[in-house]
Fold this protein.
Amino acid sequence: MPTNRQLIVLGFIFLVPFVMSGCTTTEYNWGWYEIMPSTEKGATNLRFLLSGMWLTISLSSVAIFFSILIGLLIALPGLSANRYWRGLNRTYVEIFRAIPVLVLILWVYYGLPVVLGISLGPLMAGIVSLALSDSAFEAEIFRAGIQSIDRGQTEAADSLGLNYVQKMRLIILPQALRRILPPLGNQFVYMLKMSSLLSIIGLQELTRKANELTVTVYRPLEIYTVLVLEYLLLILVVSWLVRKLERRLDTDIQLA
């Protein structure tokens, strides 16, 4: 049976020639010369498209960091025996899980200056919006991961005289993180894809770059095809890194 990596390579082998052939069965006149690296103009346009890659990766990384941090802080009240703390957790999760990401981006960027007098630039508004939206999902992931740890682990920590913070930091969270790593990786992939919505507030990430070049050269199909391949490559690399980290953790557990 072929591995996932072999299937991906085979997919590229069949997909790229099909796209680059210009789909000759249609009447559309393809203009791949606009992004061909063999020409000076094409190389310039291609560099322009790729120039948004670093911003996409960096803002997604910062947003997922704060999302995980907020999600953990929101998840802990959901594990409390106090119904008011649980209510706080449930209220936060339901509110931010219900708001569409695009709507939240627009409200943070345009609404905060009016309502609270807080004016954020496109980058900061994008990070705040993505982090808040994703933190609701992170909270549920952490809650499920912590609850999956055997109760005997908690009782053993209590018998050692560990306080709540020590118990979480030394016993519970290290085990929970190993179990929730796959969904955390999925959320980072989700964050990378949702960052494309930030083009609507003028952030110069991958999608915004593609939109601007499309207006200049009037070749939307070719430009957005390259954009699809950019995101595809980025997501495949991230997925590969997450799987590699999973295997590394599994090996460490077996050796322990």
Q: What stands out?
A: The mean pLDDT is 85. Residues 41-255 form a domain with the MetI-like fold fold (CATH 1.10.3720.10). The chain is about 80% helix and 0% strand.
